[in-house]
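RNA polymerase Rpb6 (Zhouia amylolytica AD3), 108 aa
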Amino acid sequence: MSDLRNSNAPVSTETYNRDKIDQPTENVYEAISIISKRAGQINAELKKELIEKLEEFATYTDSLDEIFENKEQIEVSKFYEKLPKPHAIAVQEWLEDKIYFRNTEKEQ
């Protein structure tokens, strides 16, 4: 999980060279499909981690004082908002050859 938080993926929009994206598969659509699947995995991992961290602050009473504000919870949420988006992390992993993929049709 720490790899995702320490990613050097851009936080803002960036244009990529299409030739670099489709180089490993020689098919831009296949490359985008692989990146998309990885982005879904990253999103699920980050969501699970965030929910676990926020549950540490969960209160199960109806007291308005406890519900009103929890600064630690807000800081955790802000931290995750500042992370690169899952698709940006997935593209960065793809460009750094950190994603394993195989085409079963070519293997047969």
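Residues 2-7+17-100 form one domain. The first helix runs from residue 2 to 5. ok done for today
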